[in-house]
Amino acid sequence: MNSLLGFSLGFVFVCVIIAMLFSTVRLLIGPSAQDRILALDTLWMCAMLLSLVQGMRFGNPLYFEAALLIVLIGFVSTVALAKFLMRGEVIE
Amino acid sequence: MSGLEALPPWAALVVSLLLLLGGGIVVIGALGLMRLPHFYQRIHGPAITTTLGAGCLLVASMVLFSSLQSRPVIHELLISAFILLTAPVVAMMIMRAAVYRDLRGRRRGRGGPQGEVYRLPED
Fold it and tell me: B58 to chain A, minimum CA–CA distance in Å?
């Protein structure tokens, strides 16, 4: 059963890496700025999931705080970028 | 892999199933983000990544650490609640920015990629 768990942890690690690659492709080829913001938001979320999966692989709950910080900063940066696209300035 | 050998078999099975499901959903959402042709279709792709994929992985983490430490470890609920609160806000902000930019580009009639807001272009 432990081999199944090890396989699942490796599988989900590779899956999150592949998702980050797809998001990076969209970030590079995105035809408009909102596409790039959407890809960047997905990249933040995938980075949070990567930190969480690393914490599960190493059995260390300290990675949880890193995941929480990543999701907080990702939300703030995405909202700031969307506000900048809509108004041309972040704080009005 | 420290301490994962002490996991009971039922917990290992549940965590493995949740991890496989969550990994597949994360890849499907990112594939939708990369492959779909228009922006208003692409914005639906990462929604499944941020809600269902992240939810599966967070529940798997909760079950794993709870059964490893023999006590309920539920601080992943913080991340779950934050994602469930902020995912609609982010989607609404990006969508409003996209609609505003498309309408402004169409009104000026020049510059920038002009998307059709209320119907999809035929191509």
Answer: 8
